Amino acid sequence: MATLPPLDVDADDRVVLEARVRAHTSEQRMVVRARVVLMAADGRSNRDIAAATGLSQQAVSRWRRRYADDRLDGLADRPRPGRPPVYGHDDRLRVVATVTGQPPDPDSQWTQQAIADRQGNGMSADTVGAILKGLD
User: Computed from CA positions of residues 22, 23, 28, 33, in that sequence, does the dihedral angle turn out positive or negative?
Assistant: First the structure.
C-alpha cells in the first residue's frame, strides 16, 4: 500500500484549523474535519487518522481530497439532495403570530385549518401542524 505524501496546508489555513479544533463553540463535525486535515498535513496515514477520529478511511480520504481541491471551503457541508423547503422562516413567524393573536371569532379557538386559511399562501393545515409541533 502506497504511503500518501503529507497534505499541503499553508500557515494561514493551519491557524484557522487549529483554532477550530481548540474552540469550544465549534461544531463537532467541523472539529473532526479540521483534525483530519491537520493530521494529514503532519504525514499521518488515512488508517491512523481514521483510528484517531473514529471516521472510516473512506471519510478521511474524502476530507483530505476536498481540502486539497477546495482548501477551507472544501470542509463545509455541501447542499444535500432533495426538495428545498417550501415555507421559510418568515412563513413560520406568520403562523406563530397568527396563533398567538386573537381568533377570528372571540368565542372560538384557532384550528389548524383556520390558521392555514389566514396565511393566504396555500399552506395546508398539516403544514401548520408541523410548524406548531416544531415549536416544542
Answer: negative
Q: What one-letter code names the amino acid at 17?
A: L
Dihedral over alpha carbons 62, 67, 68, 73 (to 10 degrees)? 130
3-class secondary structure, 27: coil
By the 8 A CB rule, do 95 and 119 touch? yes
**Long-range CB contacts (< 8 A, 24+ apart) of 81-89?**
86/127, 87/121, 87/123, 87/127, 87/131
* All three cell numbers of 40: 494529514
pLDDT digits (tens, 9 = 90+) for 17-29: 999 999 999 999 9
CA 51 – CA 94 distance, rounded (Å): 48
Identify the sign of the CA torsion 97, 99, 100, 101.
positive
Model confidence over 51-109: pLDDT tens digits? 999 999 999 999 999 999 999 999 999 988 998 888 889 999 999 999 998 887 877 88
Cell digits for 123? 399552506
Instruction: Count how many residues are written for the chain.
Output: 136
